[in-house]
Amino acid sequence: MNTDDYEFSDNRYHAFVSVAAEILDGYIAALETLDDHTVNKTPLPGTVNTAFALVTHVHGMAHYWGGAFVAGEDIPRDRDAEFRASGTAAEARVLIEEVRGRLPGWARVALTEGIRNREATGTSRRNVSEVTPEWVLEHILHELAQHLGHLEVCRDVVTSLH
User: Fold this and answer.
1) What is the total count of domains within the chain?
2) Range of 62's domain?
3) Alpha-carbon distance 111 to 115, whole Å?
4) Distance (Å, whole) CA 68 – CA 63
C-alpha cells in the first residue's frame, strides 16, 4: 500500500481519539464499582464472560488491530486465553489505561502510513486483506463500545448478586 494515499487528517484523528477516550472513561467508571471478587465473577457461569475477561479481550483486540496489524509491532495474541483471564480490579484498570495510552499513536500511524502488517495474526476475521486503515479505526471503536455495554451489564448483574 502506498503511504502517499494517506494524507493525515487532524479531524479524523481527533475524532477517533476523542470518542475512544469517552468509551474508555466508561470502562474505568464501571471498573471502579467492582472489587477483586466481582471483577472475576460471571453473571451466568459457563456462558457469559467476567468483567476481567472482557477487559483483557478489549486489550488484546486493541493491541492486535492497532499495534500488530496497523503499526506492525510484534504483539503475539492468544485470543482464546483472553476470555479465561482473571486478575484484580486494579490490573483491569491498568489494561484499559494502557489501551488509552497506545491508541493515539496507532491512530496516527493508520492515518499517515496506512497498514504496516496485514500478515499479523490474532483475529477471527477473514477479510483482513481488504480492510482500510479507516475501517480498522472504526472497528476498534465498534469493539470498544460493544464490549463496554457488555461490561456494564456484567457489572450490574454481578454487583446485584454480591
Assistant:
1) 1
2) 3-161
3) 9
4) 6
